[in-house]
Request: fold
Amino acid sequence: MIEIQQLSSKLLTQYETIRRQEHDEITALLETLERVDSLPDNEMEQVRDALFHTNHPFLMVMVGPFGSGKSSVINALLGAEVLEVGPIPTTDHIVILRHGSDIQRSRAGDIETVFHPSPLLENLSLVDTPGLESVFRTHDEVTRRFLHRADVVLLVMIATQVLTASNLEYLQQLKVFGKRVIIVVNQVDVLDPAEREQVRDFVRDQSRVHLGIEPLVWLVSARQALEAQQETPRDEILCDESGFAEIEAYIKETLSDVERFRQKLETPVQVCQNVTKSALELVQEQQAALDTHRKTVENIEAQIEQGRREQQKTAEDALTSIENTWNEAAARGSGAIGDLFQFSRGIGLFFSGLSEIAGIGRLLRRFQGRTRAENAFEQHKVNETLLQIPAAVDKLGPRLEGRDLQDIDDLVDYTRQAVQALPPTLSNKVIGRIQTPLRYERSFLRDIRSRLDDILRDAQRFETSHLDRTLRNSLIILALWEIMTVCLVLAVAAGAWEGITTEIGGVFVMFAV
Reply:
């Protein structure tokens, strides 16, 4: 006896160590799952329940259609009519039966806790659930939300309606949850022994065919079991006939401390595995969407870069054309300047210089309206060539703008389609609306044209006026030089060098004045 107690104490210590580790791991998992975007709230709630489950007793959950006798089975196990039974749905919430010194009831939300002094409840808790296939849809929802907490599930059905399509669906769902399922066929007291064996074989065969599993099948009569329990002493013969001896043996022998602890630890792990699998699939789906989205962004950036290069080439072509036009104007201007200072025009230039010295040139310019430089520039069409530059600039704006608008429209349409293809979990996070700009920024084009007009206007005005001043000064110097030369020649010829020197000095003084 002492060895058994020591073994039990050691087992309990090991269980507590593993349970604490499991609790810590589930807590860490919760922190990770909270970072998974758009994970359904009900799945997060399942993991929180699994964390809560590690600190609570073993749960044997009864599920099945209403009227199958779930509450009656629990009453028979406890040997007392603790739960209400009837021909219509009587359970509309979860009822957890736990061990307590006195019968007490408390309820919080959809869960009612009933404490009962039955020795059976010392090692496990029994759970009654609302009947499936009830006319009350909320009954199904309450039951399905609780199933993940079960350590073992007893699927209760009546002997005359075993493994209906709905029952098979419940088994499939429980299989997905990874729960240990035992099929309890109630009300077998209406069948003879041969029919009972036929029912057992049918349930096993259909479970194997449709689900690939062969669950335990218990044939019971809750009515007979309750009657046997209420006899003093208990009617063992009637209890054996009811089939409940098999349930009691399972609880006492199969659900020993080791098995119970194992299942108790496995249940939260199974819940976490199911949720983790779902979270992983969600993350992979979102990752695939993000990869596609990243490629979309890269494509958009590539299109923008391609558009930028094409726009740059268009601008460079326009600048090359403008530069060529400018160089042509410069060449024409050089030709005009060359014409002004041709050697063949020396005599005319001399007289022009004399007229400038005498002040006649200024008077003539007032009547002529144009200067020699302006006439030369007009003859060589310098200004006409310069005026081609604004026309080239004016063509650049529409070319750039037209391509920009088309590219923007194409990118907006492409981006809209890409966003619509995203999963709702990602597309709902897009901020704002994807639309073309309400206005096209043209101010820089206007600024360029305005600055160009100023440059051309200054160039035309500065070049001709500067050239006119240079020409006048050159003509004056040329005339003076020729006068000095003539005077010098005459003086040498006349032999009156000193008088002429004085005269030339006077000329210079006059010129200075």
In short: The chain has two domains: 58-278, 300-512. The mean pLDDT is 74.
